[in-house]
Amino acid sequence: MEKIEKKIGGREFAAIIILTVGTKLADDTPAILYDRLGNAAWMAPIIMGMIWITPLYFLVKVISLYEGKSLVDIIKKLFGKYMGFIILFLIWAIQSYAIIIDTAIYTDIIGTMYFTKTPALIIYILLMAVSAYGAKKGLEHIGSFAWSVLLWIKISAFAALIMICIQGEINFIFPILGPGKWEIVKESTANSSLFADFVYFSLIAPLIKSSKDYKKWKRLGLIFVILELSFALFGFVLVFDYIAVKMMNYPFHEAIRYIQFGFLTNVEMFIFPFWLLSTFVRFAVYLYLCALLFGGLFNIKHFEFIIPSLATLVVFIGMMPETPTFTIFNLRQNFLHLITPFFLALPFVLWITAKLKGDLKK
After folding, report:
1. Is Transport among the key words of this record (predicted)?
2. Which of 77, 152, 169, 340 has a CA between 20 and 30 Å from the CA of residue 175?
3. Is the model's pLDDT at 344 over the cut of 90?
4. CB 56 within 8 A of CB 218
């Protein structure tokens, strides 16, 4: 599978990582972690990051071994035509399901928190139309746009988080270990697939200008999003306490309604546009990766032409749940637990297979 496209630099790759993974602090990810961990949820991203260090090390080793090839090409080479197809189809199916769940969640956020009178279908269509347009323009355009808006998005996000922490109550963080250290480790491990995006970023490794940039910015991106997610989860507890925050589906959007800055009372309306921009980047990346995988499965060179069809299918399926706020929350929580072993094991399986084939010696 080939796609002729200009390569992106390290900073654009870092912007894609930060906006794609970092945006999870503003959806129902905090609610999933608070559900079992209470006020100790802020520790979960740190533990997840520690868990991912070894799998990502082996994944980078395999990518470096086959420099110039994407994860699609590597899986085909290592596992052959039929087994490779099965593994790639599973990765594509997981990504497709994740897009459907996540876009339904974001449609629900926009509809319930900001545009309560706008039909959900209209919001969903507009969200996917903009994201599909960005995805179809290609990775170079996505990266350039992500880098151009990254500073303003992060300034707005960190300003909000700092105000949240200042106006919160530090005593709410105690007892600091919440349900206990073993429960923290267990739940953090079970939800580690929250960082599975870093496996999917291997699909675009050949489109980064140098392998050095790929390794460097992937590592820095991981550190950044770990700290950002932990800081956000810490701040939400300071504002609401763990009992109240456990009952919220979207703590970030509730928190920015709570804070005040001088004479400004509707702070959320200043933050919402920047959050929306990061949302478009996230789903443009997801659609691009989904189409790239589909093209790799069926040897479609110009896979960008199937992006509008994928986006349309996402809207139709995503509108099916009648009560998305509750239904999709449970679906996503169970989904994260289910796919975690697969993504944590995949880098090791790739490395072991390469070693058995003798490619490591070469």
Report:
1. yes
2. 340
3. yes
4. yes
Q: What is the DSSP letter of 261?
A: B
- The pLDDT-based confidence of 1 (bands split at 50, 70, 90) is very low
- From residue 164, alpha-carbon distances to 25, 29, 70, 111, 161 in Å are 14, 18, 41, 23, 5
**Residue 8 φ/ψ, nearest 5 degrees:** -105, 155
Q: Is the pLDDT of residue 263 over 70?
A: no
Show the tokens assigned to 233.
Answer: 């989860």
- Report the alpha-carbon distance of residue 18 to residue 143 in Å, rounded: 11
Instruction: Please check whether residue 274 is in contact with residue 153, taking contact to mean a CB–CB distance below 8 angstroms.
Output: yes
CA–CA dist 22, 224 (Å, integer): 8
Amino acid at 22: G
Distance CA(140)–CA(12), nearest Å, equals: 8
For helices 211-245 and 10-22, the axis angle rounded to 10 degrees is 20
List own/partner pairs for 253-258 with CB under 8 A and 24 or more apart: 253/26, 253/109, 253/113, 255/160, 255/164, 256/160, 256/164, 258/164, 258/167
Q: Which two tokens stand for residue 1?
A: 């599978």
For range 236-245, the mean pLDDT: 85
Of 319, 290, 313, the C-alpha closest to 135 is 290
User: Locate tokens 């959806």: which residue?
Assistant: 27
- Amino acid identity, position 204: I
CB 202 within 8 A of CB 59: yes
Please, what CATH class does the domain formed by 10-356 belong to? mainly alpha
Three-class DSSP category at 8: strand
Cα atoms in the Cβ-side hemisphere of radius 13 Å centred on 84: 18
Handedness of CA 255, 99, 50, 152 (dihedral sign): negative
Q: How many CB atoms neighbour CB 1 within 10 A? A: 16
How many distinct helices (H) and strands (E) make up the chain?
13, 0
Residue 263's φ and ψ, nearest 5 degrees, are: -85, -5
Extents of the domains making up the chain: 10-356
Nearest alpha carbon to residue 132 among 320, 285, 293, 292: 285
Give 285-340 pLDDT, tens digit per residue.
Answer: 999 999 999 999 988 888 999 999 999 999 999 887 666 666 777 888 889 899 99
